[in-house]
Amino acid sequence: MNIKASGLKRILFTVVIALVIGAVLILMIGENPIEAYQALFKGAFKGKFGFGNTVATFTPLLLTSIAFAVAAQAGAFNVGVEGEVFLGGIAAAYIGVNFTFLPKPILLITCFLGAMVVAGAWATIPAVLKAYYGVSEVCTTILMNTVAVYITSYLVSGPMSAGTANAQSHSVAVNLPQFMKPSSANVGVFIAIVIVVLVAIMLYKTKFGYKIRVVGTNPAFADCIGINSKKVFINSMILSGAIGGIAGCIEVLGVHGYFLNNFAVGLGSNGMLAALIARSNVVLTPFLAFFLSILKAGAMGMQQSTGVPKALVDTIIAIFIIVATMETLFEFKKKIKRKVKKEKGEAKA
Amino acid sequence: MSEYVVEMKDIQKSFGSVKAVKNGFFTAKKGEIHSLIGENGAGKSTMMKLLFGMYPIDEGEILINGNNTDKLTPKIAIDHGIGMVHQEFMLVGELTVLENIILGFEPQKGLKIDFDAAKKEVKKYIEQYHMDIQLEKKVNQISVGEAQRVEIIKTLMRGAEIIILDEPTAVLTPQEAQHLFKILMNLKKDHKTIVFISHKLNEVMNISDRISVMRQGQYIDTVEKGNTSPLELTKLMIGREVFLNIDKTYSKAGKTVLEVEDVWIPSQKETSKIRGMSFHVNEGEIVGVAGIDGNGQSELVEAIIGLREVEKGSIKLSGKNIANKKTRAIRKSGLSVIPEDRNTQGLNREMSIADNLAAVEMDRVPYSKGFMIRQEAIVQNAKEKVEAFDIRPDDYNLPTSSLSGGNAQKVVVAREVSMDNKLLIAAQPTRGVDIGAIESIRNSLEKAKKEGTAVLLVSAELEEIISLSDRIIVIHEGKITGEMPADEANENNLGLLMMGGTHE
């Protein structure tokens, strides 16, 4: 409990610093920061459209942040969530467009399953390369993101193209209902919340979760007590990929209704950011994801009612990243110091 | 000026909370070969790295040629004529031997490097000491022995008068080692001072003039080679401790539980570290494995518990072959392990005492049911174990990283001993543990034996082996050099076998 409390404090601290620096920037362009922030929060919460937008932004972020966190719990740094969102999206779109012979509820489930399988399979590649060949998953997942984006781009411009001016697929035959029109908030948000709750239970209450945490903290110990650390590592990457796939599926079925080229750019990295700030704690991560969503969704409102441009929010997020990474840096430094000390201590005579 | 070119007095050095060197003392005379010996972790390398200025000393003083040097760095050390050949060579694989040797102080001719002058200079050393080096080859194409000679020339080119070699023969074949010794003798004739770090006694006896012994960070003694014997050196290296008395019961040994037959096991660096080892452990007996650290003990244990492949031969647990099986399967068929490295393999330091105590059986009843973990059972188990094994502090929610060495080890022992398995492997069970915990851990092993468990005890403490075991096998360089009942064993006959001698 202690650890969680201090984690929460740290996060609040980070948020405040980012907002204060943002305020200074607003002052520098000659606007009133308090008014600007008021407008921002109004934009994010006021009315169906405002809050709906926040919810719509929150849904994929929540999933991508949890996807990153799950992999991180097993010791993997999965930068590939974004690629997994794209591939999950394209798989859902393909099934949703072509498998129309299935009854609607079953088609819906099939879309989700298809997205999870394709995205999970994609995540298996870097996982196996890391576990058995020692290839850094950071490199492979970054590279594979580009590959994933181009695969989907090719598909919606070619074989799966609807023939419109924008590269996009045909409309899918099944949708997730939107409930805060005119925003694109849809029932996907509940699916996402359920998944996060399930993941949290899985991590802290089940055998599989225990194994993930053991492998993430000490793989040598895992091997010694009979947990196959490589297998657990790979499985957690697959799970991470599958969750990314679900995010893609929800975006396609709930927001757009078809696969739109490049629809998920930034989803993976923003989710990763939320998870990194929360140190991949699955309980804290959702709050961070929500905070980022407020900033993103409220930006438009701020621009309309004050002279502060929307881009300022990106600046605040960037500052947020810098402050958060600095902290991670401190932590990292401490870790390295500890490691060095340990190694020196073990320096053989 | 005193007769010594190097004097190190009252040296202390800690890394974090670990005292690597407690009262280091070392002297070297001009033109001698001085060996520094001791077991792994005795502080030999650390002492010499301090002399070479790689770390600053905490306490004490270092005199080089009579001058007090309080702020040593490798650069200053080199200026004082000290050179060091590290265990890991510091060479650039993609450059040629010649380029490597002159790296950092290349002779210049205008703007270009004067390779001819460099070659001439290097050739001088090669001929003088019969080095046998091919200067034009790239370093990654030459043998380990040759790379080592390159390192030696590097130190000579930088003006070294005192050359430190850190376990130089560990990576060499016997022939290459002979070649190295010849070079060292030539260097000695030239009045260079050689510091030779090793734990191989035959080599030390072969080439040294004087020998200094360290044990657990402490300076023990310096002896003239002529006045000592391998046996005496072994005693100095291993030392005696308080003799902890355990009521040893000679139970009648029952059925064979562990049967190792002609196994060959590779190590990290070499194939066949263990070559053709056979032995067995019966129900209700403790078999001790004695040997100087690094003679294959770790590899043997890892192979039995399924963490290292077995090249050939069979390992049977209750008649079932477990060689090259998965750890999980071997554990299920009745194996408990107290691993050598408590902090990485024995415990998950980030998790609680309770979680660590249940770790091995987490996927069995009562700790889990179906997919779910049952926290009550884990807590219940933790309460019992913490009390039964006197683990302090008794707050089982604390991470094990907050425990002292002894209490942390008690967590491992509590977990492994309580599973009532047929076989218990205890690797260095009391290493780095306080006296109180030693006693408690040894009693746990003795109790397990009484209850019919077959125990394989691997320890670097001869005293521990002798006082706990029923039967002792001695290994040297991956082979069994002797086997005897514990009541026939003493430090002399075991020590001799540990050095590769034969049973009288």
Automatic annotation (TrEMBL), chain A:
It is a multi-pass membrane protein. The keyword DNA damage does not apply. This is ABC transporter permease. The lineage of its organism: Bacteria, Bacillati, Bacillota, Clostridia, Lachnospirales. The chain crosses the membrane at residues 12-30, 50-72, 84-101, 107-125, 132-151, 185-204, 232-253, 282-299, 311-332. It is found in: Cell membrane. Keywords: Cell membrane, Membrane, Transmembrane, Transmembrane helix. InterPro entries: ABC_transp_permease (IPR001851).
UniProtKB/TrEMBL annotation, chain B:
Residues 6-241, 258-502 form the ABC transporter domain. GO terms for molecular function: ATP binding. Pfam families: ABC_tran (PF00005). Gene3D superfamilies: P-loop containing nucleotide triphosphate hydrolases. Keywords: ATP-binding, Nucleotide-binding. The keyword Nucleotide-binding applies. InterPro entries: AAA+_ATPase (IPR003593), ABC_carbohydrate_import_ATPase (IPR050107), ABC_transporter-like_ATP-bd (IPR003439), ABC_transporter-like_CS (IPR017871), P-loop_NTPase (IPR027417). The keyword Transcription does not apply. PANTHER family: CARBOHYDRATE TRANSPORT ATP-BINDING PROTEIN MG119-RELATED, GUANOSINE IMPORT ATP-BINDING PROTEIN NUPO. This is ABC transporter ATP-binding protein. The lineage of its organism: Bacteria, Bacillati, Bacillota, Clostridia, Lachnospirales.
